[in-house]
């Protein structure tokens, strides 16, 4: 998403850039082992213009303890492999044609090969974690996969459902986003030999950042513009996905919003009417308050860390990540 693409480099931090370069080298080596027909496409995906947020978290947390470069870099690569696997599968589910400025893999090779390519990255993530970690990180990554799938299943089962609970929405985005943010930080700290209390703190930071990040993303889908977000306004609504601002708007609906939402599939002019009604309601304001709540929680957890590189770098990264214009 263009609005956050430069978050990592905007910190002008030489150490983080060097760490991410090491991670990208590992990702490139792994991509070179992929089956021939999808090898180049996987290489383009893992070496493309992604934000590298999750491996950034892993290396930053890793420098809070006993930083062992090869071990931490491989764990960061494992996390990014898992993330990229979910992107391939998401593109199939969403029928998205473009990923990071390139044709999505399923558009080039069909759904079957794309699913297998995503599965390949999942398996490589687990293999790297099992071979390079000193603790059972592969179990944690496998658990993260289960949570991610749970979030996607909840989302798919609630498409076009007018009365999903706020609790259900939060479970959905916890699985889609927050879980992987949390585990990215936890693994880095755990591999560096940090205390269980510190590892838990890093996990809470990641969870709260992930929740805030996704709520802001969902807000921008309603209130943003294509020039800012890089995607059409109301795309989630078009797909029958009702996010937090919509759910809050429905709580005080006079009937107009519900009637429009009940007449799916939606034409473009209907989506515009829906987003207008949501923007005129208190939904965006209430959703923004929730994003601020999670952002504040993340910063409070960061404040518990000892002064030094990790606390400073994490503070800068999280502030830049969450202070988007919504």
Structure characteristics:
326 residues, two-stranded antiparallel ribbon, globular
Question: Your description of this structure?
Answer:
With 326 residues, this protein is mainly α. The chain has 15 helices and 2 strands. Strands 1-2 form a two-stranded antiparallel sheet. Strand 1 (98-99) and strand 2 (102-103) form a beta hairpin. Helix 1 (14-31) packs antiparallel against helix 2 (36-46), helix 3 (53-62) crosses helix 7 (166-191) and helix 6 runs antiparallel to helix 7. The longest helix is centred in the middle third of the chain and has 28 residues, at 105-132. The relative contact order is 0.12.
> How does the helix and strand content classify structurally?
mainly alpha
Whole-number mean pLDDT: 88
Order of helices and strands: HHHHEEHHHHHHHHHHH
Terminal residue distance: 14 Å
Structural domain tally: 1
- In CATH, the topology is named Farnesyl Diphosphate Synthase
* Computed Rg: 20 Å
Any idea of the CATH class?
A: Mainly Alpha
Q: Helical region count?
A: 15
Assign an overall shape: globular
CATH superfamily: Farnesyl Diphosphate Synthase
Strand content: under 5%
The order of strands across the largest sheet is 1-2
Largest sheet: 2 strands, antiparallel
Say how many strands there are: 2
Architecture blueprint of SSEs:
Layout: H1 14-31, H2 36-46, H3 53-62, H4 69-94, E1 98-99, E2 102-103, H5 105-132, H6 137-157, H7 166-191, H8 196-223, H9 226-229, H10 235-238, H11 244-251, H12 256-261, H13 268-280, H14 283-303, H15 309-322
Antiparallel strand pairs: 1-2
Helix pairs in contact: 1-2, 1-3, 1-4, 3-4, 3-7, 3-15, 4-5, 4-6, 4-7, 5-6, 6-7, 7-8, 8-14, 11-13, 11-14, 14-15
